[in-house]
Amino acid sequence: MIEIQNLTKIYEGKAEKKAVDNISLTIEKGQIFGFLGPNGAGKSTTIKMMVGLLRQTEGSIRFDGIDTLEDPVGTKKLFSYVPDNPDIYEVMTGLDYLNFLADIRGLGKEERKEKIDEYAKLFSMQDDLGGFIKSYSHGMRQKIVLIGALIHEPEFLILDEPMVGLDPKSSYELKEVMRRRADAGKSVFFSTHVLEVAEKVCDKIAIINHGKIIASGTMDELRSLEHEEGGSLEKIFLELTENA
Q: Is the whole model's pTM more than 0.85, yes or no?
């Protein structure tokens, strides 16, 4: 379980900006949790605090009861993170990069080979692992980052706009991976602007705007907020964010 309690991030400068404003969320085991919001709403800032790239101003984040500030290494062992921009080591080959991550995660020789082969085949990258990352397209870089995030089978998968740049087949395979992980009792937390994807795959959704959570729940619960029986997530999202 991921527990986010009273999380706040304030950027100080000439004009103080509250990027995330006292939000609380719970992501259960076995759940795909979608995190939606307009540009600049606070999605990436929240995720960066979750994974330790930013330090929160107030509040707490816990993975299976472990506080990210009290035990940052312990929490990082539990999750994998895919950022919204796959900036990775360009002078490595794809295979070198995956072996580097496998070393960090302590994977043995046989286990890493099995997992690298499995996910490289899934994302149609098996013929490209010997090439240098600097030669990869954006979509290929996204896929190699996803493979690196999956090879140690983390308890929690945290994804920031993971489908940007992916071809349709790879997007489909990623959605299938997310579902299988949730069905196996693991958790997926991801942000996306593709509302149709969120509506189809998410067990629960939270919408953030101006740093505040303005709605959270299942699709049926979100529809009840707007009294929209059968209403699409796109329509609900637009109505909620326009009125917030």
A: yes
